[in-house]
Amino acid sequence: MALKGKVDAIIGAQWGDEGKGRIVDSLGDRVDIFARYQGGANAGHTVIVQGEKHVFHLLPSGMLYSGKTCVIGNGVVLDPEQLLGELSELQAKGKDRARLVISGAAHVVMPYHKKLDKAQEARRQGNKIGTTGRGIGPCYVDKYNRSGIRVEDLLDVQVLRTKLELNLDEKNELLSKIYDESPLSFDEVYRQALAWGKALAPYVDDTSLVVHTALEKGQTVLLEGAQGTLLDVDYGTYPMVTSSSPTAAGGCVGLGVAPQYIQRVFGVVKAYLTRVGEGPFPSEDKGDLGQYLRDQGGEYGATTGRPRRCGWLDMVALRYAVRINGMTRITLTKLDVLTGLNEIKVCEAYTVAGERCTEFLGNISFLENVVPEYRSFPGWTEDISHIRSFDDLPKAAREYVEYIEKITGVPVVLIGVGPGRDQMIIRGL
Ligand code: IMP
Predict the structure, then answer these.
(1) What is the pLDDT of residues 323-372, one digit of tens each?
(2) Which of 103, 115, 133, 168 could form a disulfide with 74 if both were Cys (CB 3.0 to 4.6 A apart)?
(3) Is 79 annotated in the active site?
(4) Under a CB-based contact definition with an 8 Å cutoff, are residues 46 and 30 in contact?
(5) Ligand 1 centroid distance, CA of 41 (Å)
(6) Residue 279 in 3-state DSSP?
């Protein structure tokens, strides 16, 4: 069936924190529906509007736009406490401008998921994932185990009671007998969950149908990816990954849109590379350069406040992200952070056991043993934060961007030169 509308996807090309919220926000004028399709409150999307900073963990970044619809799709794991908190904060400021629609099929992050997440992580001595502690993994486990509680269950007193009894029986045994944690009270959790159901009820709808109807009318839907390709449960550096599919294809399942409607895939790429949590990072710089990037780029987690590990752009990983996502456009963020460096490097290939390798593999034994091969570029010293036209960038900055386009074969259509909403070079979308 041909529909008049189209779907654009914004996905993280790296290990998350590429600045996706920013890009979603800059494309906002052209979008009718903003949709989250995976992940949960582990995300932290920062948007700065009129000098005011907003951090969304669960709400789609489009909440600041009046007349738009924001969707939380079935693929999301929803923490009601977090969501309702974000919503009331926006309401208090009079900034909950969009219509919010939540899928009844989205799974609910329950208090025992968060407890289990932290307890399991503490027990993984020497093999920590560095999770955000937001209950993401345990909630997806229940989803795929077919025992999870969905948003629609919160609206049905009896169904909720039955499901919660089953779940809490098992989870309390796990918590107390394996993890030496205190069990949770059924009455407390049940009361809490009923209250969440009441508060969420006005927003619950068939989100796949909402999206489909919009597409029939010729509207534009934006898939707002959280985390990034290298954290994907299938394509990332398993097991140091998140438990969902942040890649573009994840949007089809997590929202209920057919693949043929995705027209453009915007990969958000930070001009250097960062990672939070554990896991291989071949081009990481653990010395002064890494610290410099962390300071200049404000590289501290929006969700956990943890310092991010920093290093050079990895073209092997980026070409992989282009392939996995079918990326059609690159939006390059934080180019201004590189200003002032004498030399800028990119990792072009890996050497492993004496062999040169240019293809990425999400296998951690492989990645832990690769030696990055770098290409060096001259830096620039001119302040670029006021520049709005590509041709006005210093030659060295232009060459860096053109190199990324050449190696990936994907045009760089947006370049971030500062944190403000307007600090962006637009080269045609
Ligand atoms: P989880 O998603 O909380 O289970 O964490 C799994 C891994 O994904 C950890 O290394 C986290 O640091 C990382 N992670 C999860 N969400 C984000 C994000 O939004 N940005 C960057 N890293 C993330």
Answers:
(1) 999 999 999 999 999 999 999 999 999 999 999 999 999 999 999 999 99
(2) 103
(3) no
(4) no
(5) 10
(6) coil
